[in-house]
Amino acid sequence: MNDTLSLLKQEALLKIKDINTLSDLENVRLEYLSKKGHISLMMSKLRDLPNEERPAFGAMVNTVKQDVEKALYDKKQILEEKALLETLQNEHIDVTLPGYKLYQGSTHPLNQVIEDIEDLFMGMGYTVEEGPELENDLYNFEMMNLDKDHPARDMQDTFYVDENTLLRTHTSPVQARTMLKMKGEPLKIICPGKVYRRDDDDPTHSHQFTQIEGLVIDKDISFAHLKDALLTMVQHLFGSERNIRLRPSYFPFTEPSVEVDVSYIKKDGSVGYIEILGAGLVHPNVLKMGGYDPNIYKGFAFGVGVERIAILKYNIDDIRHFYVNDLRFLNQFKGVKKI
Ligand code: DAH
Question: Are the C-beta atoms of 281 and 223 separated by less than 8 Å?
């Protein structure tokens, strides 16, 4: 029996020595070490031996097994190293070949404007609030001082989902929601988001567009604070040479209300003004419904159209460019990080 074992071992080691490929090596491994391999078969012969011979024979088979395993392992290292060297010798890297062109995306121009305005106001202590686009009549209109049959509802053609649910027509409902959340505490927020109105889509109108709402409530808020916030925003967006002009206007949620225009230099060198947003001091009814005593608290608010800002800023001729994902249009805004 011993002889058979040592022969088996010699034979295995010889084969391993002569092998030149990893797949041949695997075949030898299977031949000797798999369940039905020669060494496993030797182990199964234990059963036929008398009890007293079993331990010694078992130990011998194990030693042979370990020796063969070790030989296989060593050879595998050698063959793998050889294969690696061959690959390194055969494969050359041509560093002069042109690289892959990686296309880099960029932030959508509307989001660039939003992020820029958010950065500006956060730097002045405002927080950013968001609200749902599918809104209750209560927040969109009633708490903004537009009760059910208020004529000014006509100013905002509305997509109703049912009698009390609609696609918000402006970001102003986030004012109401935040006031209730703040439970009478002073607040300074801006609220960016999409809004919807029934409108034909043409170069200057879209049934969906983007607004940013601003709202500040505190004890000593005056019109001067509003004017300062607006001038800061306009000069940040369009440059420090610009000025603003406030014209009396009407919004149900503010009193007094203003339309805000930004100055520009006309072709003939004279100063012109373009309307960019609506604003005002928060109407006492809105404060009251939001949980603030209008005798103690005052507020200012504004609502600005993001598309309008981007159109003026980048001289864009059709609002629909923003929504159709034409890469030729969008690629123009690559790398415009700060506006
Ligand atoms: N919500 C108004 C609109 O969409 C814009 C607006 C005007 C918002 C005056 C305000 C404001 O907060 O004070 O037409």
Answer: yes
pTM, two decimals, is 0.73
pLDDT tens track, the chain, 339 positions:
578 888 999 999 999 999 999 999 999 999 999 999 999 898 888 888 899 988 988 899 999 999 999 999 999 999 999 999 999 999 988 889 998 888 778 899 999 999 999 999 999 999 999 999 999 999 999 999 999 999 888 888 999 999 999 999 999 999 999 999 999 999 999 999 999 999 888 998 999 999 999 999 999 999 999 999 999 999 999 999 999 999 999 999 999 999 999 999 999 999 999 999 999 999 999 999 999 999 999 999 999 999 999 999 999 999 999 999 999 999 998 876 554
Q: Bridge-partner residues for 166, per DSSP?
A: 135, 160
Alpha carbon nearest to ligand 1 atom 12, residue: 302
Mutate to test the pocket of ligand 1, among 199, 212, 221, 251 (most ligand atoms within 8 A of CB): 251
Per-position b or e across 298-315, b if 16+ CB within 10 A of its CB: bbbbbbbbbbbbbbebee
Atom of ligand 1 nearest to the CA of 304: 5
